[in-house]
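Question: I have long wanted to understand how a fold can be written as tokens. Here is the record:
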Amino acid sequence: MRHVLQAILFLPVLILQGLWVAARAQRLPPAAGPTSDRIGEGAPLRILMLGDSSAAGMGAQTQDEALMGQLAQTLSVDFDVQWKLIAKGGVTSSQALAMLLASEESQCDVAVVCLGVNDTKNGVSTREWKRSYAAVFAELRRRGARQIIACGLPPLGTFPLLPWPLRQTLGARANSLDKHLQVLTAGEPAAVHVPSLFEMDPAMMASDGFHPGPVLYSLWGQGLADVIRAQR
């Protein structure tokens, strides 16, 4: 409630700052490369990643340097990894759900979901956010996922691109949605919430000050790999 009142109080400033950020923000392309591949030897492991710009690898030059590539490479030591990526910059959870439903039918053992930043900055209601995310879980279960990793929202309150009070307001909103995500995953037997454990060090972020860089994607991928291995 506090972040809502704060947003109302600073609304004129937040609107102007949002326009300023949008005008100055560097437009990064998604990471180049295939959106599906196979790598490694060992027990077969099918991974589906669904998400926004972070899943799409914005901030990395190629998919090998991006989150999906880093995760697949780490797991390839132990598994025959067959992966598929469904991601697009700027999508909200409801838009990602529509992408998933429209995608070619594909079964998976593990699903990784990276969503929430655009719901935060676009003012998507908590009710709609929870409904869309729950529907994503249901569709992933229908596709065979026995392990669903819901990536926690990043600490927007520390992002170097965002000025105050926009940074503080979006940070509070992201924290609120992430708490709802924790509750949602707690009620989903196949899902686990993996919090964002990395400090947004500008040196590890992309040149736009908003997306992860290859080093941060590597750390993130290794962390997700550890969670996947621990549950298998």
